[in-house]
Write a structure and sequence with these properties.
By secondary structure, the protein is an alpha/beta fold. 35% of the residues lie in helices and 19% in strands.
Length: 315
C-alpha cells in the first residue's frame, strides 16, 4: 500500500522540509506533492535533498474562497500525471504534523472497507452530533451555500465589521434574500436562483482536511470536468473548501467514507477561523483519541516538542 501526501504550503521552508521528510521516513514508499503558494517566495530546489518522490509545484492558497481548492485540485492532477502508484491521498497544510504512528495509520487504511476518512454532514439537517467537532448555528450552512457572493474588499477591518454588524444580523434573522459577511473581507451575497442542490445532490459540509482513496481522487477530478457549472457555482459561495469535496464525493453512491478525519485541532479560543497553536501542554488532548495529525504547529522554540512528534510518527 502506498500513501500520497499533498502539502499546501506558503511559509517557513524549514518546517515544510521537516514535515515532508518525516512523512517520507515514516512511509518509505510514499510520494509527497508540495503545492507551494505562488504568491510566496519560491522554495529552494535543493530543499528536499533531491528526493525524487517529493514533487514540488506551485498552486493557489487562501482562505474563504475557491483558491485553496484550485491549488489542491491542481496538485491532484500533477500527482496523476506522474504515473506513480498510490492508494490513498492525505491532504495537509504546512502547519499540520503527525502525532501518531504513520505505519499504524497505513495499516488502518489497508484494512478499511471504504474510501477513507472524510468528515461530512448534511448541511440542512443541522445535526450537532454529525457536525462535531465543528459547531454551526442553525441556518448557517444555508447562508453559506444557497447564496452567491461577490467580494467588495479584501479586509473589512474593525470599523467595517462594526458598521456592517446590524445589516448582517438583520438579513439573517429576517430571512432576507441577501447576506453580508465580514469574516474574509466584505462579501455581499444574493439568494441563488440556480443552486445545484436537490434530492439527488444534497449539500454536505465538513472539515477540509481528509484522507481519501485513489478512486475518490479520480472521481473528484472527473466531476470537475463533467460539471463545470457546479464548480462555477461553488466559486461564489462562502468557504467552499468546507463543502465542495464533501458534496461531490458523498453524493456518489459508489463511495463510502468514515465521517471523521482523525485530525486534532482546538478552536475553543478561535478568532476568525484560526485554531490554537499547539505545544507540549496539548499532548494529553491529542493523545486521547485516534488522531493521526494535528494543527496548527508553530516550530519556533519547540524543537523538543517536534522531536517527540517525530518519534511518534516513526514508531
Amino acid at each position: 500500500m502506498v500513501s500520497a501526501f499533498v502539502l499546501q504550503t506558503h511559509k517557513n521552508p524549514a518546517q515544510i522540509r521537516r514535515l515532508a521528510m518525516v512523512l517520507r521516513r515514516a512511509c518509505p514508499g510514499s510520494v509527497v506533492v508540495v503545492s507551494h503558494d505562488r504568491r510566496s517566495p519560491a522554495l529552494d530546489p535543493g530543499l528536499f535533498d533531491g528526493d525524487e518522490r517529493i514533487i514540488v509545484t506551485t498552486g493557489s492558497g487562501g482562505r474563504g474562497d475557491f483558491l485553496i481548492l484550485d491549488g489542491y485540485l491542481a496538485a491532484l492532477k500533477r500527482l496523476e500525471e506522474t504515473g506513480l502508484a498510490y492508494d490513498w491521498v492525505t491532504n495537509l497544510s504546512g502547519q499540520d504534523y503527525p502525532v501518531a504512528s504513520l505505519r499504524a495509520f497505513e495499516a488502518d487504511l489497508a484494512a478499511l472497507s471504504g474510501d477513507g476518512y472524510l468528515h461530512h454532514f448534511d448541511v440542512l439537517r443541522d445535526d450537532p452530533a454529525e457536525m462535531a467537532p465543528m459547531r454551526w448555528p442553525p441556518g448557517h450552512g444555508f447562508g453559506r451555500y444557497w447564496f452567491q457572493y461577490a467580494k467588495l474588499a479584501e479586509d473589512a477591518g474593525l470599523a467595517g465589521r462594526l458598521a456592517l454588524y446590524a445589516p448582517r444580523v438583520l438579513a439573517e434573522r429576517l430571512g432576507l434574500p441577501f447576506r453580508v459577511n465580514t469574516a474574509y473581507g466584505i462579501m455581499i451575497g444574493h439568494r441563488a436562483l440556480n443552486a445545484p442542490f436537490g434530492a439527488g445532490f444534497r449539500c454536505h459540509a465538513g472539515s477540509y482536511w481528509h484522507t481519501i482513496s485513489r478512486r475518490a481522487v479520480r472521481r473528484l477530478l472527473a466531476f470537475c470536468d463533467e460539471r463545470p457549472d457546479v464548480v462555477s457555482y461553488f466559486r461564489r459561495v462562502l468557504i467552499p473548501d468546507e463543502s465542495f469535496v464533501q458534496t461531490v464525493l458523498v453524493n456518489d453512491p459508489n463511495l463510502q467514507f468514515v465521517p471523521r478525519n482523525r485530525r486534532y485541532f482546538d478552536m475553543s479560543a478561535s478568532r476568525r477561523g484560526h485554531p490554537k497553536s499547539l505545544g507540549p501542554e496539548d499532548v494529553a488532548a491529542f493523545s486521547a483519541g485516534d488522531h493521526v495529525f494535528a494543527r496548527k504547529i508553530e516550530p519556533d522554540g519547540q524543537a523538543g516538542f517536534l522531536d517527540m512528534l517525530d518519534a511518534r510518527a516513526l514508531s
